[in-house]
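Re: weekly structure request thread

Next one in the queue (482 aa):
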Amino acid sequence: MTTGFTMTIAGGAVAGASAYDVLDPADGTVGGRAPVCSPEQLDQAVAAARAALPDWSATPFEERRKLVLAVADAVEAHLEPLKRLLTREQGKTLDDAAGEILGFGYWLRGTASLSLPETVNEDSEERLSVTRRVPLGVVGAIVPWNYPLGNAGFKLAPALLAGNTVVWKPSPFTPLTTLKVGEILRDVLPPGVLNVVSGDAGLGPQMTGHPGTDMISYTGSTRTGRQVMAGAAPTLTRVTLELGGNDPAIVLPDIDVPAVAEKLFWGAFANSGQVCLAIKRLYIHRDVYEPLKRALVDYAATVRCGPGTETGVRLGPLQNRPQYDRVLGLLHDSRAHGHTFATGGLPQQQDQQQHGYFVPLTLVDNPPEDSRIVQEEQFGPVLPLLSFDDIEDAVTRANAGEYGLGASVWSADPEAALAVGQRLDAGTVWINEVQHLTPQVTFAGHKQSGLGSESGLEGLLEFTAPRTITVRRTASAPTATA
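Done, posted below.
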């Protein structure tokens, strides 16, 4: 068991009011104990961020840019111990954990290449009017358990670059790597600029309703996102919400089945399906439904699942017991309604008696459109395959529901796929690929999938407010007196 985890407040190590066990999802053993932040310690973290704000926001933009780059360098310098810790608490493979940590650095560097705009509204003999972007203040960054560092990069990079100070809260299920990163960065950023706190389920609501925060940037479920928004409402605290999705993929009949099957598989099952932008509904034209189904089944049989520390494993367990139980509930519902599993299904009884949260890679063969496995976000290694004859029907079904995060269309004819993609109600639509994101490109959810933007210039601007200064250059004419 790894020990010695502390929070970071005002640049120093802070023990929690108490501590709790963080479990390894591959075997149920204790991977470490995380501190529980008390309400008083949260007040201290917010106060430290507030105290550091004047100097940090006044730091020249180029200096802040250099320090954001230094954060990336410092974290990557600890890649080996961090990836082992991330695998132990999250469950993903060591290679995927390394990719996430390197992705954190990539996102910081990419965001640091952006600049805040300045708009000259008027520059005349009479008047100069300029609008600049200024930081919002203290940002509460609330990060989920599927990508504890990856999602944090989407928040920390623009928040710090824009001149805000931050209180960073990881999920109660995956706090350890975040706490270690906070420790590493104590010698990189000025005290109070980045504070890291951890705790149980009560800490998030305390942050969202805290009167000392100026913005909450949250990634997680739509249900919790609504609670975040409600908690921030009394103080009109700004929020950005990157929420759930039930992303459709539409496969047209002209695809090269062997070439596309592997891409579709990883688009659905990467990180054991625990990706907000994963393919969660796969609509396949009837002409290629059977061959593509067989190709996916055959490919799934080649992918080894198990503890992320073992050589050859490609996919690990689900991260926590509540999510494991939720996915099993969907599988039980499918079995009860007579759905066919092309592969996978419920774990064997002996598997369920083990401690790890492993669910077989499962393809559900053409379940009804109104079934739970289609209508609900699985967030696990389960994918419904759905056939269609008419593209109008596929588009209508793909656009149904409360979510609108991502979507994709697959065809040998990119222009034909584009024509379909332009009709999909989603914040990001990919043609012949999926989940391609860069720090320079904005993504945002439609409908119940989010509020505000992340990444790109628009994502950077979310962490700022416009301030217009107008200077009258000519004196007013004297007022006549009686």
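The first helix runs from residue 39 to 58. The CA atoms of residues 142 and 315 lie 26 Å apart.
Next request, please.
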